[in-house]
Amino acid sequence: MFSHLDPRTILYYIVVSQIILLLDASVLLEASTVLLFTLPFWFNHQWRLAGGIVVLYFLQLTASLFWLPHVNNAVLLYPLSMLTTGFRELVPGILVGLIAFKFTTLAAWISLFKKWHLPKFFTVSFAVFFRFFPTIRADYRQIRDALAFRGIERGFLGFVKHPGQTFELILIPLLMNASQVASDLTISVLTKGLGLTGRQTSMVVLRLTKVDAFDLAVGSVPILLALGGF
Amino acid sequence: MTTAMITSKNVSFRYPHEQEPFLQNINLEIQPGECVLICGHSGSGKTTFSRLLNGLSPNYIPGELQGEVTTNGLLAGQAAIEDYVPVVGSVFQNPKTQYFTATVKDELAFPLENSGIAPVEIVQKVQQTAAEFHIAHLLDRQMFSLSGGEQQQIALAAATILHPKVLVLDEVSSNLDDQAITRLTTNIRSQKAAGVTIILTEHRLAWTNSFVDRYVLFQNGALTQTWTKQEFLSLSQAKLHDLGLRAVDLTAHRQALAAKAYQPKSSLVDQTNTLEAQQLTIGYQSKQVLTDLSFALKPHQVTGVVGPNGVGKSTLAKTLTGLLKPIAGQINWHGHPFSAKELLKKSFLVMQNTNYQLFCESVEEEVLLNAKYPEKKDELLTQLNLAKFAQRHPLSLSAGQQQRVVIAAALMSGKELLIFDEPTSGLDYANLQRFGDLLQLLKQTETLIVVITHDLELSAGWCDQIIHLGKP
Question: What Pfam families does the annotation carry (chain B) (predicted)?
């Protein structure tokens, strides 16, 4: 069972990650942010996910620092910079996105939005969006299985061997199902009254706990480092 | 004379970009506390009409509405979707896209929170509803960990928690096994006893006999016939089939099913067997699903796999097709042990939702994708009645045609074991019959055919042997 975070803690993480991105922070600060933002994963025994992200990030970092300066082919340079530098700078934001999905619940988010009286169109869209990804992930697995029956390998190896074909073949059924899922979820949320005007309540009591306090402190470290001139 | 709960006067409905109205001149009155079942072919307008009753059309699913539909005084097209929330509870076919929150307790609380009920009262109402629906033991469970039947039960409980006057149930039994349907029946009967007006759209009719008061037939968007319960239940099976409807009494089907139960031989070694599963234990690293499973498959027969939701039917399909390795035991092909990789090359799973399995821009390209026998294309397309659709986009075809395209692709890639996962879920009788004909056609080949199904009419009517999982 995960220790749940208050959605406000996650909003704080979002702000910090965006500041780091906008500041065009130093590599040291960026790497520290990535390591700090993986702490909630380590504490919740998400070893493989956290480890995978850290390894990927440092591979990108190593490539951009030591390999990219020696690439002289302009055709290769652009996609490689995108992979090693562009995508790398997005890693803190991606980590926050994962924290938002894994360590809090949709009920907590909706409770926060109700408390802040955010517009209904935003709350309904957010609710559908939040529920959309787990459903699409299950669809993606089914499509990969379906491809395996057509002789196209599943898993990372299959993607590496036939990236274009795999991407194209997955995309069509995924998009077809995505539109149906989005429509079904919207219908469901509307018939359950999330769009009702007037006062709404919530069983979820939002409270900042010790875990939130710790995570807020961790999230503040990159900002303090930035202020300290790193 | 009581005021009708639902009235439909001269109602026609046309979807955007369509020339002709989909619903035509529907006139119907439903009294408070009445339970009405709308039956008819797929695409006859049942779901479209039900969406006019719960406010989804024309508000969210747009179209041009003529005539008047009112539900407890709410006029479709003028009342907002939100106005329907306290009045109408809705449950849909797919349980996986009906829940929003993490736990059962949160899911039941969700409509109450949205209606502004005080948290203390919410807790009481959640407990009360859980007791009524016999789901108190599920309250702290994660929604995604529940079986489809349990999720559908929670969806019904959540739809009734605001005590609506009307329930609209759109093909809610399509994905459910016998046990789940029994629970659903109990819950619907108690809602009826409480005076709730209930409208069902259904293909599977037998489970509804005990609570439906009136049956209504839709054909090509028009309401063509109504029957009282007595009139409907006295219709012969032949008459029902003529109307494209399924059976109302499954007693004979159950007997047929029992007679077809798989009889394990003292030894599986039989020259005519193609596949032999020997003492299989299947499941995942963290969880064994089924143990000591032995059976044999041979050509020219259809094997049905039946059993309750969550018993391991899909896990067995994944194991037989090589997507999962067995935890223990082995699978032999013509007497030789086969690895998961070898099984994957030999087998093909036709999924319930064929949208997952169609990747190309035309039927021709689809069947040629990684085909082992491309020279058989024309012959196979003709055999499966697909030749005239060769240049059409597969996703533009009907569900039955898509299913045939997937089968053609499987046969073109040289697959010798075809497993169908719930192939007739949500199908009317005519389409069930069509699928049965297709099984007969496949039986003439050397292909091994396995059908995973909850559908008694399919398993009793077209399967030659039945493997019943979950029975001691």
Answer: ABC_tran
